[in-house]
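Comment thread on ticket #2218

A.B. wrote:
> Attaching the input chain for the structure job we discussed in standup.
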Amino acid sequence: MTDARDERRPAGELEATVMAALWAAGAPQTPGQVQLSLGSGLARTTVTTIMTRLHDKGVVERRRQGRGYAYYPVQDAQGLTARRMHTELDRDLDRETVLARFVAQLSPDDERVLRDLLESGDG
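C.D. wrote:
> Ran it. Output below, let me know if you need it in another format.
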């Protein structure tokens, strides 16, 4: 049975919480292991659903463990953020305007970092 608290939290928040637990573990985790590590009262079925959705999105991989699966992230947190940025960029047909507005809203420090990355070819 799903706890009412589970249903009030946005899916993105729950996904981020599960991903943080997977990164912290450093090894493949079953939904039950993640549930225990979170200690937040999430139902195991809720954790399983979240992990299945993350797998469907290609954010985690899984391998058979007993009757279920153990899940592990395919990227670190920074790689996942970069992937989300690409996904958002791909949603708009006017990439040039989106990129221009993104760059225009950067802080001076972020602008310097971006310029350095573009000039060095790293990134």
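A.B. wrote:
> Thanks. Noting for the ticket: The first helix runs from residue 4 to 8.
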